[in-house]
From TrEMBL:
<feature type="binding site">
    <location>
        <position position="66"/>
    </location>
    <ligand>
        <name>substrate</name>
    </ligand>
</feature>
<dbReference type="InterPro" id="IPR033524">
    <property type="entry name" value="Glu/Leu/Phe/Val_DH_AS"/>
</dbReference>
<comment type="similarity">
    <text>Belongs to the Glu/Leu/Phe/Val dehydrogenases family.</text>
</comment>
<dbReference type="Pfam" id="PF02812">
    <property type="entry name" value="ELFV_dehydrog_N"/>
</dbReference>
<feature type="binding site">
    <location>
        <position position="153"/>
    </location>
    <ligand>
        <name>NAD(+)</name>
    </ligand>
</feature>
<feature type="domain" description="Glutamate/phenylalanine/leucine/valine/L-tryptophan dehydrogenase C-terminal">
    <location>
        <begin position="144"/>
        <end position="376"/>
    </location>
</feature>
<dbReference type="InterPro" id="IPR046346">
    <property type="entry name" value="Aminoacid_DH-like_N_sf"/>
</dbReference>
<dbReference type="GO" id="GO:0006538">
    <property type="term" value="P:L-glutamate catabolic process"/>
</dbReference>
<keyword id="KW-0520">NAD</keyword>
<dbReference type="InterPro" id="IPR014362">
    <property type="entry name" value="Glu_DH"/>
</dbReference>
<keyword id="KW-0560">Oxidoreductase</keyword>
<dbReference type="GO" id="GO:0000166">
    <property type="term" value="F:nucleotide binding"/>
</dbReference>
<dbReference type="InterPro" id="IPR006095">
    <property type="entry name" value="Glu/Leu/Phe/Val/Trp_DH"/>
</dbReference>
<dbReference type="InterPro" id="IPR006097">
    <property type="entry name" value="Glu/Leu/Phe/Val/Trp_DH_dimer"/>
</dbReference>
<feature type="binding site">
    <location>
        <position position="42"/>
    </location>
    <ligand>
        <name>substrate</name>
    </ligand>
</feature>
<dbReference type="Pfam" id="PF00208">
    <property type="entry name" value="ELFV_dehydrog"/>
</dbReference>
<dbReference type="InterPro" id="IPR006096">
    <property type="entry name" value="Glu/Leu/Phe/Val/Trp_DH_C"/>
</dbReference>
Length: 388
């Protein structure tokens, strides 16, 4: 275990890995503070029965680049709990996790929402520590900004896709979109794609996929999801295997579920002209190389799905304020920042004949490195090589 954790460390981080457990509840979890040169660690908290320390560390590193890419002053971090988010003892596990991290929260990290956690869960974490600064993503009744209800991340994914299509010389309006994953991000993205004039032709959940080359009724799918969750695709009718959304004929492919779902086979088969990473780390490195050779740009996750952290930044700023965060302040900033970043990254990739991921990493790494130098965290003559 120690050797495995130490193998995660490179010149950028992580600065701290805290593994915690509780005998009574059976809770096991981890907090990874990756790089806080630009500010306090901030990232979501997930719960999964297959969670690993390495998985959380990868996501924490993504947060480091995401905060830097949107030029907001927090550091990369992530937390996770090993367990079933549908289990009856979830609240007891959440409370044990919060207690175990009271030395780090909220001084070094604030809980947020990720896979397996809801706004009600954020309320439990806050209640356990008795500090309004302990969590963001709270229900509206506690003064929070309900990210999932508002669909801020998915909204930003669609905005980034629209800007990337324009940068590539074609219009999103009238184009076909396939969304793999119809959760909080995928559903909101699909709704915004429709508003922007695109046609959503495929959608998937863990229960399967639906595909219609003439366009799906996204509003109906959203209503069904509210009633039956992932089974919305079954209730819609004509359910197909879940991977259909990854291979359906489309102009824009949006993987918005789990890591590494766009592999070599998908990269070779897709008809998409543009891939927009709605999930964190949804494309493998080898798949990105294949897509690059095929001339298909990929908008990186920490560029495309940064809408959630723009909202989180507003919430972090207002954690102890008696005033609510105004969504009217959040959405315009998401649109402005994500559109500008998507266009800039694709333009830089074209100029340097490199991949958008490489261009985006250079932008983020330059900002983090500047902060590390100013804080004397490195010897003056240190040069860190860009990471792949």
């Amino acid at each position: 275990m120690t050797e495995d954790v130490l193998s995660l460390v490179d010149e950028w981080g992580p600065e701290k890995v805290v593994c915690v457990s509780d005998r009574r509840s059976g809770m096991r979890g981890v907090l990874v503070l990756d790089n806080t040169a630009r500010g306090m660690g901030k990232g979501g908290t997930r719960m999964s029965p297959t969670l690993t320390v390495r998985e959380v560390a990868r996501l924490a590193r993504t947060m480091t680049w995401k905060w830097a890419a949107v030029d907001l002053f927090h550091g990369g971090a992530k937390a996770g709990i090993l367990g079933d988010p549908r289990a009856a003892d979830k609240e007891a596990v959440l409370r044990a996790f919060a207690r175990a991290l009271r030395n780090e929260v909220p001084a070094e990290y604030a809980f947020g929402l990720d896979m397996g956690l809801t706004e009600d869960d954020a309320a439990v974490l806050l209640d356990e520590l008795g500090d309004r600064g302990a969590a963001v993503g709270l229900p509206r009744a506690l003064g929070g900004l309900p990210y999932d209800e508002l669909g801020v991340t998915g909204f930003g994914v669609a905005e980034a896709a629209d800007a990337a299509a324009a940068e590539s010389g074609w219009q999103l309006a009238g184009s076909r979109v396939a969304v793999q994953g119809f959760g909080a991000v995928g559903e909101a993205a699909a709704r915004r794609f429709v508003e922007l004039g695109a046609t959503v032709v495929a959608v998937s959940t863990a229960a399967g996929a639906v595909h219609d080359p003439d366009g799906l009724d996204v509003a109906r799918l959203s209503r069904l999801r509210a009633d039956v969750g992932d089974d919305c695709v079954r209730e819609y009718g004509g359910v197909q295997p879940a991977d259909t959304a990854l291979t359906a004929p489309t102009d824009v492919l949006v993987p918005a579920a789990r890591e590494d779902v766009v592999d070599d086979a998908v990269a070779l088969a897709t008809t998409a002209r543009l891939v927009v990473e709605g999930a964190n780390l949804p494309t493998t490195s080898s798949a990105r190389k294949i897509l690059a050779k095929r001339g298909i740009p990929v908008v990186p996750d920490f560029i495309a799905n940064a809408g959630g952290i723009v909202a989180a930044a507003h919430s972090m700023d207002m954690r102890r304020s008696p005033f609510r965060v105004d969504p009217d302040d959040v959405f315009p900033m998401i649109s402005t920042k994500l559109r500008a970043n998507a266009s800039a990254v694709l333009a830089e990739a074209k100029r340097t004949e490199d991949t958008p991921h490489a261009a985006a990493h250079r932008l983020a790494q330059q900002r983090v490195l500047a902060a590390m130098r100013l804080r004397r965290q490195l010897p003056p003559d240190t040069t860190l090589e860009p990471l792949p």
